[in-house]
Amino acid sequence: MSNKTIAFIGTGNMSYAIIGGMIKSGFDAQSIIATNRNAEKLAKVAEQLSVRTTQDNLEAVAAADVIVLSVKPQMMAELCKTFQDADIDISEKLFISVAAGITVARLREMLGQPVKMVRCMPNTPSLLGRGVSGLYGVDISDEEKDYVEQVFSSTGIALWLDNESKINDVIAVTGSSPAYFFLFMEAIEEKARALGFSTEEARKLVQQTALGAAEMALSQPDISIAQLRANVTSKGGTTHAAVEHLKEQQLPKTVADAMDACIARAEAMEKEI
To answer: What is its EC number (predicted)?
Structure first.
């Protein structure tokens, strides 16, 4: 698959991050095609990443072996209809969708035939090479599977899922979870300002602490998250008082309930689109 051409249909921030990761990982820039209706954005992609670009989606699809569908879910049906209407043979092309809430069956229905398909759920830290991508494939070869894994590993880590429903679980665990962490950081930052720290000081204190905690977890993979938390929580101390209060306020249950709400919304979207 190393000599395959891949086209990104709709090159927004996520596609830009994936393409950038691919280039850094050694993919040939000339084997990558990026499309966007905005000529200015497309020119930026061409200048910064040296990939092939076009505003013509059909041109990109015709030239590519692998097509990444990276448009908003509500735009997917209209986009796929243009492929159906065009005289392009897509039967042997591999399609990858990064859209939430659209199943493989629905995507194939939109495309008008049972094409080879991978659903992917990346997250925003992919923009920094720290992403997580959940992958689910249908009717793909081992070679194609390896290729897709190489593409998405270029932005962080990639995890293959045994069944499609796990995509919704990945959304709750990694896709949406950066927002959970940001909300927690936001709450600490707000309290820091209330305690008299300046906005700049509060931001620095919170982001450095969050970064440090994450790096501690990364550097000690053999130690459970629970143990890492216990290691900085002396019984009867200040941290213990704060943690116990969070438990009394049912923080673990609140987080679990929020993740269930995320999954429920993803499942509802599958019925709407």
So the answer is: 1.5.1.2
Instruction: Answer yes or no: is 126 within a domain.
Output: yes
For the stretch 116-119, contacts whose Cβ atoms lie closer than 8 Å and that sit 24 or more positions apart, written own/partner, are 116/92, 116/140, 116/144, 118/94, 118/148, 119/164, 119/167
Q: Are 161 and 28 in contact (CB under 8 A)?
A: no
Handedness of CA 58, 60, 66, 70 (dihedral sign): negative
**Statement to judge: residues 141 and 214 lie in one domain:** no
212 annotated binding-site participant? no
Q: What is the pLDDT of residues 67-119, one digit of tens each?
A: 999 999 999 999 999 999 998 999 999 999 999 899 999 999 999 999 999 99
Which structure tokens are listed for 127? 């923009």
Q: Is 239 annotated as a binding residue?
A: no
144 within domain boundaries? yes
CATH of the domain at 234: 1.10.3730.10
Q: Using alpha carbons, list the distances in angstroms from residue 214 to 67, 181, 217.
A: 34, 11, 5
Task: Write the CB contacts of 243 (distance below 8 Å, at least 6 apart in sequence).
Answer: 229, 233
Instruction: Identify the domain boundary among 162, 197, 216.
Output: 162
Measure Cα distances from 57 to 62, 68, 242 in Å.
9, 11, 54
In this structure, the answer to whether residues 52 and 83 fall within a common structural domain is yes
261 CA to centre of own chain: 19
- 11 annotated as ligand-binding: yes
